Amino acid sequence: MCYANMGTDKKQLIVTLGEQFNADAAEHINAKVNLAVKTGPFHTPILSFSIDQMSLNIAEEASEDADITLIADELDTFERILTGRQHLVSAFMQGNFQSDGYLVLVFQVLSVFTSRQQGK
Predict the structure, then answer these.
(1) How far apart are CA 64 and CA 86, in angstroms?
(2) Is there a domain that residue 2 lies in?
(3) Which domain CATH number covers 45?
(4) Is 34 within 8 Å of 62 (Cβ atoms)?
(5) What distance in Å separates the CA atoms of residue 97 and residue 69, rounded to the nearest whole number?
(6) Which stretch of DSSP H or E encloses residue 45?
(7) Pairwise CA distance, residues 68 & 9, whole Å
(8) Are 45 and 34 in contact, with CB atoms under 8 Å apart?
(9) pLDDT at 11
(10) What digits encode the pLDDT tens for the residues 29-73?
(11) Is 120 inside any structural domain?
(12) What pLDDT does 4 receive?
């Protein structure tokens, strides 16, 4: 799949994940997460990350044993959510975001990134 028309590219998304990660907020979170982009009625995994012992590890491939999968209509949606330019609930209500897995864990994981905006 070509991501050239999506604005944000995969490398920029990886940078954003690293920049927005708040280790202090991740103290009690242990999770493996896949990020995927909608491709028609399906979704295509684009990368994964894990949070363990207040650290973030990013892989450029999907994890086969992810706890949750976050699915967006395009890479820009992840960028907007992670940087606080779009609220998670509004992205969901607009059909731009969905998830597979334990919903509480989705909110916990995303709070590790969005907590940077709240502290500014």
Answers:
(1) 29
(2) no
(3) 3.30.1050.10
(4) yes
(5) 11
(6) strand 42-52
(7) 22
(8) yes
(9) 94
(10) 999 999 999 988 899 999 999 999 999 999 999 999 999 999 999
(11) no
(12) 41
